[in-house]
Amino acid sequence: MLITHDNRCSLDAVVDLVNTAPEEGGADGLADLAALSDFVRTHEVSDVGVLSERDLADVRRVRGRFAEVFANPEPQAASTIINELVAAAGTTPRLTDHDGYDWHIHYFAPGASVADHLAADCGMALAFFVVAGEQERLRRCEAPDCRRAFVDLSRNRSRRYCDSRTCGNRLHVAAYRARRKEAAG
Predict the structure, then answer these.
(1) For the segment 3-42, what is each residue's pLDDT rounded down to a tens digit?
(2) Which long-range CB contacts under 8 A does 3-8 form with residues at least 24 apart?
(3) Torsion of CA 109, 111, 114, 119, to 10 degrees
(4) DSSP per residue over 119-151, as a string?
(5) How many Å is the Cα radius of gyration of the chain?
(6) What's the pLDDT at 26?
(7) End-to-end C-alpha distance for the chain, whole angstroms
């Protein structure tokens, strides 16, 4: 599956957006306007004006809908959510070559809010996975204490953890120690 630069940026943004949601008892990664501003800056979300509390609330709502896509293994259910997000965003595909990037497609309408921008561009990036029959690549970490979202871009679709150096390694070390303890026991 060919993933263009702009789709990869949108995939990174949607994964990071979903992962800002508070886990049980955890902190919200989009707790305030400063956090939203950081998110926008980090992901180089273009054409965003002055952010407001309404933007924050709308982005949190969009985040919740994207979380449903990652939680839903059925293409029909995911496509319904994606279609609703993209339609509500007033999607207007257009070619652009801004900020030194080659030609690519923006799906958000000019002057769109940050929530509509994310819904359109990220929604279309996820739509390409559904269309390609690759929705199973939109996953949640299998570590019992994690559940962070990620996109499995491995060749054989075998990635199980959001980060093999943390979640994967921690579980492998725990399994190793349990085997050693059992062998010594």
Answers:
(1) 888 889 999 999 999 999 998 777 999 999 999 999 999 9
(2) 3/153, 4/104, 5/101, 5/102, 5/104, 6/101, 6/104, 6/105, 6/106, 6/121, 7/124, 7/125, 7/128
(3) -10
(4) HHHHHHHHHHHHHTT-GGGEEE--STTT--EEE
(5) 18
(6) 79
(7) 49
Which residues, in sequence order, are bridge partners of residue 95? 105
Q: What is the pLDDT of residue 171?
A: 66
Question: Is the domain defined by 5-138 classed in CATH 2.40.50.840?
Answer: no
Within 8 A by CB and 6+ apart from 93, the residues are 105, 106, 107
Amino acid sitting at position 147? R
The 10s digit of each residue's pLDDT in 73-89 is 889 999 999 999 999 99
**How far apart (Å, rounded) are the C-alpha atoms in residues 59 and 18?**
10
User: Is residue 166 over pLDDT 90?
Assistant: no
Nearest to 128 by CA among 108, 160, 110, 151: 151
Per-domain boundaries in the chain: 5-138
Residue 143 structure tokens = 């570590």
Cβ neighbour number for residue 121 with a 10 Å cutoff: 27
The whole-chain average pLDDT of the chain stands at: 89
Determine the pLDDT at residue 167: 83
- CA–CA separation, 38 and 51 (whole Å): 11
Distance CA 140, CA 162 (A): 7
